[in-house]
Specification:
alpha+beta; Heat Shock Protein 90; Beta-Lactamase; five-stranded mixed sheet; five-stranded antiparallel sheet; 10 helices; 347 residues; 3 domains
Length: 347
């Protein structure tokens, strides 16, 4: 209270984080201007005993008590000496005896200068242990996704080799379709392997996937462009994998049926997401549904495997609907209305 009207508190040049906000349960130590312990609360004494210090604290230099707990080659935070001497408003942490204590020093001033300090102490051993467990779990999950991705790419390579050896064009086409679908799932796992949890930035994943689908489905003399409007956002793996398959099947269908015999084409993917609800519109400027029906290759009939995959995932996994309709400017529009499955499970 005496420091506040003199402008000495709150501290102007403090280096204190939000990790150690003072609590009633914190132990506290009162230091003299030389850093000698003048008083230590029971909770503060318990913190240092947890670190392995059994000596009496009153009348001792806190810096000496802390230094004796460290072993040779132990990493020492730069702020630790300042905290143990109470000379600056900083945070630090002391690790010893498989325990961790978070500390915050609060220098005390009078009109003539520094008179001592207070050091707040908190046992954070369990908190740090849980943080390490989470880091280990995250690393394990990331490694699993990476290995799944590698295994799927191996399966994709085997399918490609098998397709090269067969003489049947129909078998070649079916194997190429299977390879593409395996590669789609592999790319989702690639995105998951680069995150620390089970959430993936779906916009990055789907952009690469759909461009890959266009490249695989187009003929050598075709040029098909694809544009994206809107954002999918972050998405759990539980939703990302089936949605990736749905969208890649739509793009492949559009190219195979809508642009057959055409040199150029354009596809637009529009996304609208409101909370758990997801609306996706895939449009192409191809021949249109009526012309496809005349050619005996209607996409919305459900007879093809790709169309069956789309309907199955959208209806069963997302509880959604699929609508195929002619595009006003020519071509086809497919409208997907879905509710994210992971969000449904959480509600």
């Amino acid at each position: 209270y005496e420091m506040i009207p003199r402008g000495q508190f709150p501290y102007r040049d403090s280096v204190m984080s939000q990790r150690h906000i003072a609590r009633v349960s914190d132990g506290f130590i009162v230091l003299t201007v030389d850093g000698v312990v003048r008083y230590a609360s029971p909770n503060a004494i318990s913190c240092f005993r947890r670190l392995g210090s059994l000596r009496a604290m009153i009348g001792q230099y806190l810096s000496e008590i802390g230094t004796q707990l460290l072993h040779k080659n132990d990493p020492v935070p730069e702020t630790l000496p300042l905290v143990l001497s109470g000379k600056a408003a900083v945070d630090s942490e002391l690790d010893a005896n498989r325990s961790a204590v978070s500390m915050r020093s609060l220098p005390l001033y009078d009109a003539n200068g520094r008179t001592g300090g207070i050091v707040l102490c908190r046992d954070v051993t369990e908190l740090r242990r849980r943080e390490k467990e989470l880091q280990t779990k995250d690393a394990a999950i990331s490694e699993i996704h990476h290995r799944v991705k590698n295994n799927l790419q191996s399966v994709s390579a085997l399918l490609r080799l098998q397709a090269r050896k067969t003489k049947s064009q129909e078998v070649k086409k079916e194997l190429a379709e299977a390879q593409r679908r395996v590669q789609t799932i592999a790319m989702v796992h690639e995105g998951l392997s680069q995150t620390v949890d089970e959430i993936v930035d779906f916009d990055k994943v789907i952009s690469n996937l759909l461009k890959m689908s266009v490249d695989l489905a187009t003929m050598r003399d075709q040029h098909i462009d694809i544009d994206f409007i809107g954002k999918f956002g972050m998405m759990p793996a539980q939703d990302a994998t089936p949605l990736s398959l749905v969208l890649t099947e739509l793009i492949t269908n559009a190219i195979e049926h809508g642009f057959e015999g055409r040199k150029e084409g354009h596809i637009t993917v529009s996304v609208g997401r409101g909370g758990n609800n997801l609306n996706v519109v895939v449009e192409d400027d191809g021949v249109g549904l009526e012309q496809e029906e005349n050619n005996g290759m209607a996409r919305s009939s459900g007879s093809g495997l790709g169309t069956q995959i789309i309907n199955t995932f959208v209806k069963n996994d997302f509880g959604g609907t699929v609508r195929w309709e002619p595009r006003r400017e020519g071509g086809t529009r497919v409208i997907l209305d879905m509710k994210l499955r992971a969000a449904q499970n959480e509600s």
